[in-house]
Amino acid sequence: MSNDVVQGTRVSGGRGAASSQTLSRGIRILEILADASTPLTIDEVSNELGVHRSNAYRLLRTLEEHGLVGRDSAGRIALGARMASLAAGVAHDLQAEALPELTTVANELGMTCFLTIRDHDMCTTLASVEPRHAVASVAQRPGASHPVTVGAPGKAILAQLARSEWPADVSDELRAEVDAVAVTGFATSHNEVIPSVQSVALPLALRGRQPAAIAVVHVAPTLDVERIVERLGRSIVAISDALGG
Predict the structure, then answer these.
(1) How far apart are the C-alpha atoms of 43 and 90, rounded to whole Å?
(2) How would you classify residue 168: left for phi > 0, otherwise alpha for psi between -120 and 50, otherwise beta?
(3) Where are the domains of the chain?
(4) Cβ(149)–Cβ(173) below 8 Å
């Protein structure tokens, strides 16, 4: 009897582990496709995932059935349209209020403007708008994440957290930069997340929500930081007022 129980427990645990691995691999495929600049072949996906082609194919078929991935005319794979509707449901009201402001700022300043939120120890882009008529702009894909310890938006987010909530790997230099945000009201970065790219970010603190930030990125050698801060500040006020602070 006891042996059967032990064996049953082992079997159950094995199934749970297998299910978790399958789910993890499916999520990883979505991350791989999101990070790719062009659609990928099944072989490329399987190589990135580190599994046999047949396993990757089964996972992709399941994701395709749910509209999370799709294929082009050559059979290459990219994220599906269903991903956009899922992403739009994340902090829907915040995105709805932020997008008009992001669009206006992007076109006024000629820079990509984006909204980020804290996601554990990561800084994740929730929405992004590129300027309409800019000769060159920096793409900032929604869903893109990087450690909250790098980049201007990360500093603006850390400035809203108690020290006890900071990641363990915060350097003394970063501590000083984040402390400065409390005084100046904005954060800057250069060459931290994307090589040669500069960023300016302002904290967006809303009651009952994760710390957020609004930022712009640009490859220009110099930036009119004062003008950027003033314009982003007006957007911060507009979004905060619309969402009740």
Answers:
(1) 32
(2) alpha
(3) 2-85, 90-242
(4) no
- Give whole-number Cα distances, 158 to 30, 54, 128, 204, 210, in Å: 28, 43, 21, 11, 11
186, amino acid identity: F
The fold of 90-242 is Beta-Lactamase (3.30.450)
Residue range 192-232, pLDDT digits in tens: 988 889 999 999 998 888 899 999 998 877 889 999 999 99
CA–CA gap between residue 113 and residue 99 (Å, rounded) = 9
Within its chain, how far is the Cα of 18 from the centroid?
28
Same fold, 2-85 and 90-242: no
Rounded to whole angstroms, how far apart are CA atoms 51 and 73? 25
pLDDT tens-digit readout, 38-94:
899 999 999 999 999 999 999 999 999 988 888 988 899 988 877 766 666 666 778
To the question of domain 2-85 being in CATH 3.30.420.40, the answer is no
Q: pLDDT tens, 221-237?
A: 788 999 999 999 999 99
Which pTM value belongs to this model? 0.70
